[in-house]
Design a protein that fits this description.
The structure is a single chain. The protein is mostly beta strands. It has 2 domains: about 130 residues, Pnp Oxidase, Chain A (Roll), CATH 2.30.110; about 80 residues, Thrombin, subunit H (Beta Barrel). It is built from 3 helices and 15 strands. The strands form 2 sheets. Strands 3-4-2-1-7-8-9-6-5 form a 9-stranded mixed beta sheet.
Length: about 270
């Protein structure tokens, strides 16, 4: 690099147009493309090795202080639908303090957030777009339906959705303030609850106003209106008895035996 230039890193974490964080390892804030990147002392970026395959190497961003707002939400595992990560390098002229060149070093999405207890700092792991296009191939050994989408271009079953206000959150339990309009048993089992694009899977629900969730819902969901979506556990009985959609069932009929054939008898 020319002796009259120096380089800085810019790290952007964006959950939406209004929620995100912009950090730099420069000793002062930098405004670039309409965003102000705040100085983060100790910010370190470990870039993945570039390759031509669909690899799973990750970008590690370390030394991020857990401040109020968005970064605090990340450290507390607040559910966002996705968080885009971009790492750029800027060459800046020493004399004019203008940007001489720009390089994009990494783009992807957050994969894992790792708070460091008692330090006030956290690290994140992000994976590139190639990782999210890596699809497992092969025939699943299961009796369950192979449709990946309930309704729409999948099995064609009608997805039931209802809007309700969250009355309370207790651990993994979410309770709504009003009863479901459709009270079919297990209709919302394996469905999901959505708020602002963030979805949490319904782990179990048979009936009533309380849902056992796959992840603990945030406490600030209380009082807000969420949308409940019906689900499917992909069993033939569910397809037939709840959705009356047996003609579109796509199970392969290949069941995993309930014993180890190497040393057990059926």
């Amino acid at each position: 690099m020319d002796s009259n230039k120096y380089s800085v890193l810019l790290v952007s974490l964006e959950a939406s147009a209004t929620e995100g964080a912009y950090l730099t390892n420069a000793g002062y804030p930098i405004t670039y493309e309409g965003n102000t990147y705040q100085n983060a002392d100790g910010l370190k970026v470990k870039l993945p090795v570039l390759g031509g395959t669909i690899d799973k190497e990750e970008c590690r961003i370390e030394g991020m202080a857990i401040s109020e707002g968005f970064l605090s939400n990340l450290a507390n595992h607040y559910p966002y639908s996705k968080i885009d990560v971009t790492v750029k390098e800027l060459d800046i002229n020493i004399d004019s303090e203008t940007v001489a060149a720009t390089r994009t070093l990494f783009t992807g999405m957050i994969y894992q957030v790792m708070p460091a207890p008692l330090t006030g700092y956290m690290s994140i792991a992000a994976k590139g777009w190639k990782y999210y296009t890596d699809i497992v191939a092969g025939l699943p050994c299961t009796e369950q339906c192979a449709w990946s989408i309930l309704g729409g271009i999948g099995c064609g079953a009608t997805v039931v959705e209802e809007a309700h206000t969250v009355a309370s959150v207790s651990g993994y339990d979410l309770t709504i303030s009003s009863s479901l309009s459709n009270t079919t048993a297990f209709l919302f089992n394996k469905g999901y609850v959505e708020l602002g694009g963030a979805r949490i899977k319904i782990k179990y629900h048979e009936s009533g106003n309380t849902f056992q969730m796959d992840k603990a819902p945030p406490s600030d969901w209380v009082g807000q209106t969420v949308t409940m979506y019906s689900g499917c556990d992909r069993r033939l009985a569910t397809c037939r008895d709840i959705y009356d959609n047996e003609n579109n069932f796509m199970g392969m009929g290949i069941a995993m035996v309930d014993y180890n054939p190497f040393y057990e008898n059926p």
